[in-house]
Amino acid sequence: MDWSDEGIIIGTRRHGESSLIVELMTPGHGRHLGLVRGGRSRSQRPVLQAGNSVQVTWRARLDEHLGNYALEPAIFRAAKLMETPAGLYGLQALAGLVRLLPERDPHPQIYATLVALVDILDDPVLAGALIVRFELRMLEELGFGLDLERCAATGTNDDLAYVSPKSGRAVSRSAGDPYRSKMLRLPEFLLALPGARPGGDDLIAAFQLTGFFFARHVYEPRGLPPPEARERFVALLARQVLPAAVL
Predict the structure, then answer these.
(1) 138-189, pLDDT tens digit by residue?
(2) Which residues, 6+ apart, have CB-to-CB distance to 27 below 8 Å?
(3) Predicted pLDDT of residue 244
(4) Percentage of the chain with pLDDT > 70?
């Protein structure tokens, strides 16, 4: 059995004295692990870093085996990402999201978005706005997508301001105001096309929104704590975008 693809390294772990098990996200073969013999050598070490893109060939006797990777470097990003906390925590948070997907299950659009995000992690505000959209997409992939297009009460898309914590559906301001204390805030930028820089309050509120549904539907049922890297990325973002008085 063998295949070739491109991929981005999302993690590694030691295997034996000199080898590494490398975890990739690929467009055609999803999240996939493989053994790189001699992966801890001085020549291989700069290549086998999280955030780098590679060309990969995987070989195994049977499909269910771990198999061996032959990797060739394509894009080096790791050194740049490690220069800033935003790059480091952002990459770790993205890798944690991808690990929620079943192993070896192709998600080509998720892969394409991941690569695009890794390339802009040096701009935390822009990256944060796109990461929270990525989280919404991941909730959809996991079967817990939110319905933010129309009001759950009126069926219209006018002045959407809240999200129901029970249904995950948008609620208009007029229908939700009487229950404001029980509602989640719906940041306006999530209703617009990607690319705009949201205000600081909106950006943090968006992470609170997705974090609530990840905790309820993903982390708590699996007995997992909220990812530490995500919490650190959001805290770093809050220090940059919120006034000191708010903090």
Answers:
(1) 999 999 999 999 999 899 888 999 999 999 999 999 999 999 999 999 999 9
(2) 5, 6, 7, 106, 108, 111, 112
(3) 52
(4) 98
Burial profile 215-239: b = 16 or more Cβ within 10 angstroms, e = fewer = eeebeeeeeeeebebbebbbebbbe
- Token readout for 45 is 């070490």
Task: Give me the domains of the chain, ranges plus CATH numbers.
Answer: 2-77 (2.40.50.140), 84-148+186-241 (no CATH)
Could you tell me if 161 and 185 are in contact, meaning their C-beta atoms sit under 8 angstroms apart? yes
- Closest to 143 (Cα-Cα) out of 218, 215, 211, 207: 218
Nearest to 5 by CA among 25, 35, 19, 22: 25
Considering only CA atoms, which of 106, 128, 118 is closest in space to residue 53? 118
